[in-house]
C-alpha cells in the first residue's frame, strides 16, 4: 500500500511526522502540495492514527494500492449539490420564497441520513408551491458555483478517456445546464412540475433517491460495457452511500460523518482534483 498525503498547503516536516506512523520505505513529492509515502504499513490502528494526525494538520490522506491509476477506471459518477457544486439548489430556491431555514433544516437531516430521502424531498418541494419558475434561473445565474478543483478534475479525467455521469437528488433544470457547460456524458435527476410558470410543489416522473442513484450507476456501467468496479463515485450525503458502495473507488467530498466513515477516500480540505494524486501511478 501507498499513503497519499495532500493539502491546500503542505509542510514537508508535517508529512514526515504523519507518514512515520505508517513506516514508509520512501516519501516522494508528486505535486506542489501532495506526497506519496511508499510501501507503508496498513491496519486499522495505523489508519486511525493517521486519520487523527492528518485531520489535525488539515491534510487529506488516502491508502491506495500501489500502481492504481486513472487507466483502471472508465467512469466517474458524481453527486451534484455540495459535491460538484458548492450549494444545495433546493435551499437557494427556497430562499427566493423566504423559506431557506425551514428547507435547509430538512436537507441537512436527510444528508445525515436521519430522514428518508423521498420523504424529505417531497416535504421540501411542497414548500415551494406557487414560486415563480424564474427563481430557478436566478439561482443558476447568481448562486451556483463549481466546487474547487472541479474543472481541473474533469479536464484530467476526460483527457484520460473516462466517461462522466452527474446523478443527483436535485433538479434537471440544473443538471441539464451542468451537462452542457461541462460536456458531461450522462445526467439523471428529479424534474420539478411547472404549470403556468409556477412551481406546483411536486416532482414528476419519480424521485431520484439513493436506490435510484445506485441503479443509475449500474445502468450507465451496463451501457458502457463495464463493471461498477471500474467506476469512481463521489458524493457527500447519506443518499449517495448506495452508489458509493458498488464503486471501485468511493470518494467522500466535504461529506457528512456517516459518509466519510464508509468511503474509501475522504477529501475534507483539498478540491475535487484531489483524486488525481491518488491515481498517478
UniProtKB/TrEMBL annotation:
It catalyses: O-phospho-L-serine + H2O = L-serine + phosphate; O-phospho-D-serine + H2O = D-serine + phosphate. One of its GO terms (molecular function) is hydrolase activity. Signal peptide: none annotated. Its EC number is 3.1.3.3. Keywords: Amino-acid biosynthesis, Hydrolase, Magnesium, Metal-binding, Serine biosynthesis. It is an enzyme of class 3 (hydrolase). Its cofactor is Mg(2+). InterPro entries: HAD-like_SerB (IPR050582), HAD-like_sf (IPR036412), HAD_sf (IPR023214), PSP (IPR004469). It holds the Pfam family Hydrolase. Pathway: Amino-acid biosynthesis; L-serine biosynthesis; L-serine from 3-phospho-D-glycerate: step 3/3. CDD domains: HAD_PSP (cd07500). It comes from the Bacteria. NCBIfam families: HAD-SF-IB (TIGR01488), serB (TIGR00338). Belongs to the HAD-like hydrolase superfamily. SerB family. This is Phosphoserine phosphatase. It comes from Herminiimonas aquatilis. The lineage of its organism: Bacteria, Pseudomonadati, Pseudomonadota, Betaproteobacteria, Burkholderiales. The gene is serB.
